[in-house]
## 1
Amino acid sequence: MHLTCGRRTRRLHFNDRTLDSRPMHDFHYTGRQLCCEGVAVEALARKYGTPLYVYSQHTLTERFQDLDRALAGVDHLVCFAVKSNSNQSVLRVLARLGSGFDIVSGGELQRVMAAGGAPGQCAFAGVGKSESEIEFALKQGVHTFNAESEPELERINRVAARLKKTAPVAVRVNPDVEAHTHKKITTGTYENKFGVAFEQIEGVYARASKLKHLRLRGLQMHIGSQITKVGPFEQAVRKVLPLVTRLKDRYGLEFFSLGGGLGIVYKPALASGAAAWWKTADARHIITPQKYAARLLPLLKSLGLRILIEPGRFISGNAGILVTRVEYVKRTGKKNFLIVDAAMNDLIRPAFYEAYHEIVPLTRKPGALIRSDVVGPICESGDFFCQDRPLPRAGQGDYLALMSAGAYGFVMASNYNTRPLAAEVMVKGNRAALVRERQPTRQIWSGEKPAPWLK
Ligand code: LLP
């Protein structure tokens, strides 16, 4: 098994190209082997074991630069959403590209700093910032606190007064628009806990302007995640535009943050035939940086504010895969189960959001597809990656890749069933490096202590 792939590359015949732009990621077949950039993924699986996350540095870079370039017509800052993938090497790639960061905890701020990111380029979001997190972020000099309620503004003001500082703040407006995404990742309607209601926001700014240790720096919104069309963004921007103009005139705001949420292609075109994958609605109609910018920049240009965006999935989603190995093939009368060594604790998206992740073999073999369930070893019926999906025949010891697992994959992993956290590898060209070692099993309970009476 060679580590590097030859130059003769054949792209995955699905899920790898948007119609109007370059390939969506750097995972492709060279002959029968699935490669990440110039590296055979199976060689990585054999070397580092499975379950294994593999990231492409080139995909991360291209996706960031694509967005950055699309927004070139306005003063802007792309703040990568750290929650989508916080591996130190991923953050390093983005920090070196000049990315800002959207953070949601003191821990994420520490991670960004450890990766060489600048606190002054960090936007601190989240509905429940603690006193100590606010204090830490203020001392480090974050770009903005995106506040989500009046009690939070009062708390930030109090902490800033104690530290004899002025805190830069933006308030998150909830524009009450429907993002047309999964209910668990919709955030911009009044059913959600996020932001301040559109009708209340001016009152909140008026009262916040009286708090001496706050500097009103911007307005923020974020309507949801995996939004595949520009429409909901445009609707929200159009609704908020008059408001942000008034707030700018009154309080001298400097920026308007549109939040994150740009969706990616998860679904391939297997059903419509491999040769016609690019004709699927998903691939043709998916949001792209170009479409996003073409519809939104004309609205935003005259505003004269700096534009911030907070993409997570768009940058990291297609840049990572989860590699797993088939432990057993179990044929019941009804089903063909591929029991693999990854589970819902490694990638919870299918169980939690009914999310679709494309599943492909690391080594392609000719032959018919058979309807299969790919399931993990965890003792829950919800522990599956797909059900009744036509997949190439796979046997014990074969490797599979769960595609587009770079966002909300490893970061949402847990130790459920006392399963160690997976290892992570970063690929750049023909090079690969272990960027997180597999968690040693004993470490899982290393913080536990028997009660004195149980010793
Ligand atoms: N900004 C704010 C304020 C957010 O809450 C989020 C995501 C983002 C930016 C980045 O959103 P993105 O560009 O990645 O869509 N675990 C779910 C997604 C949860 C998103 C939470 N907030 C999933 O696996 O689909």
## 2
Amino acid sequence: MTAITQSVDLERRGRVAVLTVNNPPVNALSQHVRQGLRDGVNQATADATVGAIVITCAGRTFVAGADITEFGKPPKEPGLHEVLDRIEGAPKPVVAAVHGTALGGGLEVALACHYRVGVKTARFGLPEVRLGLLPGAGGTQRLPRVVGVEKALQMIVSGDPIGADEALTHGLIDAIVDGDLTGAGVAFAEKVLDDNRPLKKIRDVEDKIAQARGKPEVFASFRKSVARQTRGFRAPESCIKAVEAAVALPFDAGLTRERELFLELLASPESRAQRYFFFAERDAAKIPDVPPDTPAKEIKKAAVLGAGTMGGGIAMNFANASIPVTVIEVSREPLERGLGVVRKNYEATASKGRLTAADVERRMGLIHGAMDLGAIADADIVVEAVFEDMPIKKDVFAKLDKICKADAVLATNTSTLDVDVIASVTRRPESVIGMHFFSPANVMRLLEVVRGAKTSKTTIATAMAVGRRIAKVPVLVGVCDGFVGNRMLHARGSQAEKLILEGAPPHQVDKVLYDFGFPMGPFAMGDLAGLDVGWRIRKGKGLTSPVADRLCELGRFGQKTGAGYYHYVGNDRTPIPDPEVEKIILEVAKAQSIARRAISDAEILERLLYPMVNEGAKILDEKLAIRASDIDVIWVYGYGWPVYRGGPMFWADSIGLKVIRDRMREFQRQHGDAWQPAARLARLADAGKGFLDP
Ligand code: 3HC
Ligand code: NAI
């Protein structure tokens, strides 16, 4: 075995030279990997005793892409294009032997090889679009030549990988192999030599792209089919243009076009934000005083208390991850209703072809209903999702303390109550933690894990690990009113209420946020969620919200009653501005002597988002979030903040904290001290720094 570089070895197995990439953790194409591949292929080519070359990887995966940490830095030789030219242009067959994931530049390496084999569990994809990029090393030109234009468009624009079986069906790989992968790759290469098979260069393959030539409707209908999911993103359209170039231009001209589009995207604010977010999401898993080797408890059995809106969805998460879960209710009727909703949800997914009937039954089989807490005595984790009422929660936790096994994690899904108070009724506050799911709990990816004053590191490590296992994105936060996400949402919501009284109609406010990239604005959201929910909470706390209260008094609870801030016709969910509501707003404004005026979209955006940023700064000062990027992860996964704007803290940095601080001071003069810039915001603005600066 010869080391070509620190991360690429060359080994001889008879007539076959095996190049093995070993660049943990994911074999990204760092400079030394590119150099190792290029020089290794050169050496093997120059050696007359070598008949064929196999490229494979050590560790958990095939090459998972370009090294994202190198983006934005001065390029280092050799470039990936040169390496791929070398591979494809080699005069001897080159075979890629794939395990794990061949992603992005990794799949592009495999596509430059003459043959590809993979193990059954291997996955193949071009996820660059998720980083606001397109496959920039020939992926947009080679993939359509192999799998056809429609499949390539779907893979490149969604970024979703496909499995080995599908890859084989579409001709992306030549064989599925088992046993020792390197051995299987070598055996395949031997066979290519024995059979005297040609060097299959994808650049020369024409038939599949020829089928799409002169058919602009293929692209038009694809664009239409993805318009909704890709709204606001820049990369998807560039991906489509690059595939159009693959069809319209000769290979090398197509590569040049791909390169131009790639460089445009690389310099775009959208890609910068999305690359930032890739690392932000991974950083959220890192907790300085709870290192990765902190022992987490093994979770074999879960329990959920309450089968209401949240409990049912939470139970589904466990079942989806093959963890048996017992759901406890107070009586048979809510239990049956709750489990019925769960079944209906699964069946709806099955009817869309995303689950089989057998999957539905298997998952339902993992969910057991019960009315006696004794049924959860052996649960490793309990998630409480009963009514949001402190005396009830206290009663429930006192009982759990008596019944649950000594090392069980006791989690509460409370959204507004103090986790420390809940923990205080048990003799094991170290085992109590908040696990704040978002509605619908089986769909939304965010999980705020709420650390109480006495929560142990093991409990935190367990909650974070189980969160990931049930496919959530867990983010650790501290105890405060609303935790991180809802506390910031509240700051935005109170401004939205003020804006409609000052003269901006609800549909203008909503449109500003929709155009910014949110799925909907606060008023459409209120109508969707039901205005009566907040009304009940306000009444319980003796609070008012004059416009919303008036709407509720009129029975306008939102979509479910056909009217709220908007009105709705029949079953159509399109919000239609309503003169009745405008009248109510005018009356309330008059009663409060609020002078009305036209308000610009730009001001609306500042009024809605700057208070969120300010609240985020306070949250950091109060050490309720570990880092600014965690707040961004919360907003992207929990509230639909457009990922191509990074998150509120990243966005604030991109505007400049000085600009925001100065504007807030203007608002402070006009509207009062609620607008006072937070200490951290003022301090960073003075220093010319951002929240994310080291
Ligand atoms: N470059 C640099 N670092 C990377 C990386 C990459 N392409 N992919 C992953 N990493 C790092 C992660 O940041 C993480 O670091 P950390 O441990 O310090 O936080 C570590 O590798 C492990 O990553 P994950 O925690 O994500 O590990 P998983 O096992 O959960 O997932 C994976 C593995 C599926 C490979 C996932 O990491 C992934 O999706 N990676 C990105 C793949 C990608 O986007 N590839 C395209 C890159 S762009 C490109 O290739 C351009 C080309 O067309 C020119
Ligand atoms: P819900 O009212 O839909 O369901 C609560 C269920 O708990 C009811 O079915 C009730 O019968 C049951 N229950 C009451 N006491 C019980 C007990 N002692 N043992 C077992 N079951 C009992 O309420 P929802 O909306 O599901 O909320 C549950 C919790 O989740 C609350 O703490 C809420 O703040 C929190 N939450 C709610 C969100 C939402 O959007 N609805 C979002 C995030 C958190």
